[in-house]
Amino acid sequence: MNDQTPHRRLTAADFDQELLDLYDYYAHGRISKREFLDRAGKWAVGGLTAVAILGTLAPDYALAQQVAEDDPDIFGEDITYPSPNGTGEITAYLVRPMRTDPDQPPAAVLVVHENRGLNPYIRDVVRRLAKAGFVAMGPDGLSSLGGYPGNDDEGREMQRSLDGEALLNDFFAGFEYLRSLDGTNGKIGATGFCYGGGVVNKLAIAYPEMAAGVPFYGATPDSAQVARIEAPLMIQLAALDQRINAMWPEFQKALEENDKRYEAHIYPDVNHGFHNDTTPRYDEAAAQLAEERMVAWFRTYLVG
Question: In this structure, is residue 1 part of a structural domain?
Answer without folding.
Answer: no
